[in-house]
Design brief:
The protein is mostly helical and 559 residues long. The chain is built from 23 helices and no strands. α1 runs antiparallel to α15. The radius of gyration is 63 Å and the shape is rod-shaped.
């Protein structure tokens, strides 16, 4: 018989690819074309894809032209949602035609677009379909498990049912190809466990097409175990459920397996009849991978029944179509597509990384500029604040100086008042003393006709006292002058230890009196004046060669 592993593997792959987006037969009528035209006017790309996926077209050029048009529109508008959906539809289309290489490439493209669109459900479907067309059983299982978190997170029950059916079928194929007998029971238990999960999920979901697929899978195990009657029963149940949905791939797959069971049972008439139905349907819908299986069965069948001409005819058909299919679906081709996609993905990642680095560099430059601007702004702010502080300090000092000047003026006024009071008091005393002296002198002169020497000396002494009082009044008068008053006030502030006698001396010095004149004014000797001048220099902290006149002018000019 034809190599069963390759035959069923190809059949399984294409059934799964077909089931990734469930099709249902629609009429290829003018009304359908009008609907599609209207959908394009409304820019409803996803709806057009849905119609293509649900229709088994006999003219394969028409749905392919629609999908290519959708791909062009999606790329032009850079719509990742449309792009992911269109890539999925193209992958299913080429998978149905047995071109696994093209199908795998489109499913890889769909995964990338779905990731960019952040569509988790489409991403999971893309990975699921990659597993469907993968030829390595181990890679299939890895891909299936990779898609589970995406489908579960989106509660995509339909595709989860398909997934567990598919994983169960992979373990069925591993069972049939196992070289170590110890692995057989493990693969068989794993296969049936996956089918049970799918069946349980469909108990609530109640999808007839998934139930048909369950019957189909059970029938394969019955066939493997040579329980041909049960296998026929399950395959027929599967076909009956699919009658309304028009799932041509699974129907053809069921017919091929039914025909092989007839062959095993030596019912050659039903074999040829059933296989002819499968051949016609495969040709009608251009399902070349199933034709390879059919031609392989015919080749071995006619060789077994002794019809060499037919055996040669189908051998030629088988190898010609196998070569054609190998170009489309070989494991090496799919690996090459996967490697090319991996290179593209890494190039895209590298490009994105470079773009991020450029963005980081721009952000760094902008941040640095902002930092410089901020630092400069802080510098200007601090400088401005410093200027304000300096200005405030200056204003404060000016205010303090003005207040101090005001205080000094008040002190000067007080000192003026004090000096004026002293002057008035001294003037009054002197007037009283002079009046008393004159009255006393008048009385004496009346009592005595002649003055003794003693009386004359007494009169001289009293007159000298009056003269001294006159000098004090003169000094007080001098002190009351404005500039002199200011000088005395400032000197008293700077040198609190100066006495009234010192102030009298300062007043005379300020008026330009020399030592002799000062001695006469104060009624003291010249040596006493020099002593007083020396002591005053010490109190005012002046050197011997420092001029009193210059010092007084400097003191008055100070603020």
């Amino acid at each position: 018989m034809f190599n069963k592993l390759n035959k069923y593997l190809l059949s399984f792959i294409l059934i799964l690819a077909n089931f990734s987006l469930i099709p249902a037969q629609l009429s290829e009528s003018d009304s359908l074309r009008k609907v599609i035209t209207t959908l394009y006017q409304e820019n409803a790309i996803l709806e057009v894809n849905r119609i293509v996926n649900k229709n088994d077209f006999t003219d394969t050029n028409y749905p392919l032209s629609l999908l290519n048009k959708n791909l062009e529109i999606s790329l032009k508008q850079n719509n990742k949602e449309w792009l992911a959906d269109t890539y999925l539809s193209l992958g299913v289309f080429w998978g149905q035609k047995g071109n696994l290489k093209k199908a795998y490439q489109y499913f890889l493209d769909a995964e990338v677009a779905a990731k960019q669109a952040k569509n988790i459900k489409k991403q999971g479907q893309a990975i699921l379909n990659q597993a469907n067309v993968e030829t390595s059983l181990d890679r299939k299982i890895r891909k299936f498990h990779q898609s589970i978190p995406f489908l579960e997170s989106q509660k995509d029950t339909l595709n989860l049912i398909k997934l567990y059916q598919n994983v169960g079928y992979v373990y069925y194929e591993k069972y049939r190809s196992a070289k170590i007998k110890d692995s057989l029971s493990y693969y068989k238990s794993q296969s049936k466990a996956q089918y049970d999960i799918a069946r349980n999920l469909n108990t609530n979901f109640k999808n007839e097409e998934m139930q048909a697929l369950t019957y189909n899978r059970e029938a394969l195990w019955y066939k493997e175990e040579k329980q041909y009657d049960k296998a026929l029963e399950s395959f027929l149940k599967s076909k009956n459920l699919l009658e309304s949905s028009k799932q041509m791939r699974l129907k053809i797959f069921s017919d091929i397996n039914i025909a092989e069971i007839y062959w095993e049972k030596k019912d050659f008439q039903n074999f040829e009849k059933t296989m002819a139905i499968a051949e016609n349907e495969a040709k009608k819908y251009n399902i070349d991978d199933y034709l390879v299986t059919i031609y392989g069965d015919y080749k071995e069948y006619y060789a077994e029944i002794g019809n060499p001409n037919k055996a040669l005819e189908y051998t030629k058909k088988y190898y010609d179509l196998t070569i054609s299919q190998a170009e489309k679906s070989s494991t090496d081709k799919i690996k090459l597509v996967e490697l090319e996609n991996d290179v593209k993905t890494k190039e895209l990642s590298l490009s994105q990384l470079k773009s991020k680095q450029r963005n980081y560099y721009i952000i760094f430059i902008i941040s640095a500029l902002l930092l410089v601007i901020a630092a400069f702004s802080i510098y200007l702010l601090r400088k401005n604040n410093k200027r304000k502080l300096i200005s405030i300090e200056k204003d404060k000092k000016i205010i303090e100086i003005e207040l101090e000047n005001k205080r000094l003026k008040e002190i000067i006024l007080q000192e003026k008042d004090t000096l004026n009071q002293q002057y008035l008091s001294s003037f009054v005393k002197q007037s009283e003393s002079l009046n008393n002296f004159l009255e006393d002198l008048s009385i004496r002169l009346k009592k005595t006709e002649t003055l003794t020497q003693s009386d004359v000396n007494q009169i001289k002494l009293e007159f000298a006292n009056l003269t001294n009082q006159s000098s004090e009044i003169k000094n007080i008068s001098n002190i009351s002058k404005s500039n002199l008053q200011e000088l005395i006030v400032k000197l008293k502030q700077q040198f609190p230890e100066i006495t009234t006698a010192d102030i009298n001396l300062i007043s005379l010095l300020y008026e330009g009196f020399n030592s002799k004149e000062i001695a006469s004014a104060l009624n003291i000797s010249a040596n006493s004046v020099n002593t007083k001048r020396y002591r005053l220099r010490k109190k005012l902290k002046l050197e011997n060669d420092d001029s009193f006149d210059v010092f007084f002018k400097q003191t008055i000019s100070q603020n």
